[in-house]
Each structure stands twice: as structure tokens, then as C-alpha cells.
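Long-time lurker. I teach an intro course on protein structure, and each term I like to show students one example going from raw sequence to a predicted 3D structure in C-alpha cell notation. This year I'd like something fresh instead of my usual example. Would anyone be willing to generate the C-alpha cells for the chain below so I can use it in lecture? Attribution to the forum is fine with me.
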Amino acid sequence: MFYPQKSRQKKRFSLPSQPKCIKCKKSAYPIESVKIDDITYHKRCFRCKHCNVKLTMRSMAKIHSDAYCKSHTRA
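-- Reply from a regular --
Happy to contribute to a lecture. Here you go:
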């Protein structure tokens, strides 16, 4: 008798996809990232768009989905 062979394909393990940093486009894991309104940044990439100073949650202001320091948001 003929018995069909079962396919023995290996199941590959894959991690769930991580959000990407908006600046560098690399995976940003929760411990190394900052998230503002569904926009993810690495802590090292979270900088003012105008002067490139490193931002914190207290020192930033968001204008049209761009992060700025407080001194560059004043008119």
C-alpha cells in the first residue's frame, strides 16, 4: 500500500513586530522608547525638530505631529 508522506515543514518562531521609531525607522522596544499620541521615538531620537536638543516629556511641545522644545513653540 501507498501512504502519502506528511509534509514536515518547520514552523518558524517570530517575535511580534515592534513599533518603529518615526525618526530612524528602527524597531523601538518599550524600555527604550517614548510614545506620544501613537507616535513612537527612541529616547535618543526624541529631539527638537528645530534645534535638535534632547527632549523630555516636560520640555516638549507637539505641533502638527512634530516634537519641538518649549523655546521653539513660542510665536
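Some talking points for your students: The first strand starts at residue 33 and ends at 36. The mean pLDDT is 85.
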